[in-house]
Design goal:
mainly alpha, coiled coil
């Protein structure tokens, strides 16, 4: 096993002496002070880094909250618009049903009028035929009347 460097060996020996309450050299105390200050510096650096990360995470959290708020507002507007459109759609369906009924009534009336028109045409033809018959009969009666007058 390799022997420890003299500085390390001295440090360990004097640390043991200090723990036992024996006097320690100024050099060892200075070394401990430097180590303590270095450790303090490292802790301060770690604190600074951690504080910067904490601020960064806090900003990200604030951005996420703001985005969530904007998304909630957009969602509320979407729901309101969707409800408005659903109401308008229901109104249009109602109007469509009403117009379909009117169209059905119109078709029914049109068919009735066409039937009436066809019936009127048929009656007109029958009337014309009857007129021709009556005119022929009248002509015959005039002929007969002329025959008796003579």
């Amino acid at each position: 096993m390799d022997p420890l460097p003299q500085e390390v060996d001295d440090y360990i020996r004097e640390s043991i002496d200090h723990t036992l309450g024996l006097p320690v050299s100024a050099q060892t105390l200075e070394l401990k002070l430097r180590c303590s200050e270095a450790a303090k510096r490292r802790l301060r650096d770690q604190y600074t880094v951690l504080l910067a990360k904490l601020k960064e995470k806090d900003q990200a959290l604030n951005r996420s909250r703001a985005e969530a708020c904007m998304n909630a507002q957009a969602l509320r507007k979407f729901v309101e618009e969707n409800q408005r459109l659903a109401a308008e759609c229901a109104h249009l369906v109602s109007q469509c049903n009403k117009l379909e009924k009117e169209c059905s009534l119109y078709d029914h009336d049109r068919e009735a009028l066409m039937d009436f028109g066809n019936e009127a045409d048929q009656r007109a033809k029958e009337a014309e035929f009857r007129v021709e018959e009556l005119e022929d009969e009248l002509g015959e009666l005039w002929e007969e009347l002329k025959f008796y007058k003579e």
